[in-house]
Amino acid sequence: MVEEERISILNDEDPSDGDFVTYWMQSSQRTVFNPALEYAVDKGNELDLPVVVYFGLTDDFPEGNERHYKFMLEGLKEVEKSLEDRGIQMVIKKEIPKEGAVEIAEESSYLVTDRAYLRFLKDWRKYVSERVDCPFVQIESDVVVPVETTSEKEEYAARTIRPKIQVQMDRFLKELKETELKHPSLDFDFETYDIKNIEEVVDKLDLEDVEPVDQHIGGTSTALERLDTFIDAKLHDYPERSKDPTEDGLSGLSPYLHFGQISPVQIALKVKSSGSPGSEDFLEELVVRRELSMNFVNYNENYDSLECLPGWAYDTLKEHEDDHREYEYSKKEFEEAETHDLYWNAAQNEMSKTGKMHGYMRMYWGKKIIEWTATPKEAFQIALSLNNRYELDGRDPNGYTGVAWCFGKHDRAWKEREIFGKVRYMNANGLKRKFDADKYVGQIESL
Ligand SMILES: Cc1cc2nc3c(=O)[nH]c(=O)nc-3n(C[C@H](O)[C@H](O)[C@H](O)COP(=O)(O)OP(=O)(O)OC[C@H]3O[C@@H](n4cnc5c(N)ncnc54)[C@H](O)[C@@H]3O)c2cc1C
Predict the structure, then answer these.
(1) Which pLDDT value is given to residue 373?
(2) Is residue 185 in a domain?
(3) What is residue 175's predicted lDDT score, i.e. its pLDDT?
(4) What is the extent of the structural domain holding 272?
(5) Average pLDDT, integer, range 211-232
(6) Residue 294 sits in the same domain as residue 345
(7) In a mutational test of the pocket of ligand 1, which residue from 142, 254, 344 has the highest number of ligand atoms less than 8 Å from its CB?
(8) What 3-state DSSP class applies to 260?
(9) To test the ligand 1 pocket, which listed residue (67, 250, 285, 297) has its Cβ within 8 A of the most ligand atoms?
(10) 192, 90 Cβ separation under 8 angstroms
(11) 22 φ, ψ to 5°?
């Protein structure tokens, strides 16, 4: 049973005379632990109709590129097969998702979708809600506690959102049973876009050319394997090892979470039931920090520009805008890892070669872009654009929040200094105190 707080009715139409219920899958690209899918199956059973899952494959997705698409398609291929095993037809169309959703809704009795938080994805749902003649319902499937249930306003920092999440969390940490399907939909003869040969599909789509990576293979089954390995081998000393980029101490789950290939509720339940001493620290990241990001992009219209910052951070950066910069690099020099700093270059190379930079290095990486760029405004845009281009988990609420954090978001004022003003500063000596930074450089060079 899907919790009421996850359900939003996006229009006020009555069920129409359609042949099926459609789940427009967009953010939650999985069949396991997916409340939007289970809601659609329930609705189909209630209306005595089969369920169809629609996915719009567009080559026009903002900042999407070959690297992202290979990972996403690996996941979708698994989704297609798993739906088929359950008796549900998946219809993939090469078109703009919001337009495809309106089209398929013409034949549907009911339209269900999942929830997203970025501006243009909210606009897609609004566009559909204004055009369909059947009920359109959104199920919030990719957070533990639904965003408005946690808070009705933008939160100031982790310390202010933490108690609000903690008081609700147990109520939402529940197993999600698969609903038995009454009416299979495999007999419908929809035309669907063939994604069997992923390399070919990536080649055919008109996508930005960023080399796909092999270190991370998309799909729910790989995500679940990673989760099990992480719980068995790494979770117990997550609090220490997660801060050392030379150690393989993280879960590696962020790309899977980004594409909705795994549910945060499922992760949290497994982590909690392990009883591991590392659970608390891990859940702080997975639930508190991650859901602070959703809160930020949902309530702060300016999440992708310097204007998102709290007044003190914005003002202090502006006051120091004209401070002398010892080094100044262009976006291209950053992108090609051509700074004077070996550690920064290694971090950039880790991201561009593997599609995932270690979390600890991301903070240093972002801070140094501020220090070595002509203005904070330019630095913000360079950091976002590189993050979104090369990280497999980029273009995510967490990415906008991580970048904004480097500029003072969700943080407090520190001792005033050049360029940064009162925004927190990081330097290479700090890295060396925490871990063997030269070893990290060596590891990245050998990739
Ligand atoms: C400049 C900068 C840019 C970032 N860009 C992104 C991004 O584009 N996408 C992204 O998912 N994360 C981003 N982060 C947050 C964080 O670095 C990554 O989530 C983390 O490194 C992902 O690796 P993991 O899944 O192995 O992490 P683990 O440590 O295993 O954490 C498990 C999960 O907890 C969540 N989490 C961990 N750390 C954070 C954090 N600091 N804030 C919010 N959630 C967190 C993530 O969902 C992560 O998958 C960024 C941070 C900074 C400072």
Answers:
(1) 98
(2) no
(3) 96
(4) 143-177+219-299
(5) 97
(6) no
(7) 254
(8) coil
(9) 285
(10) yes
(11) -110, 135
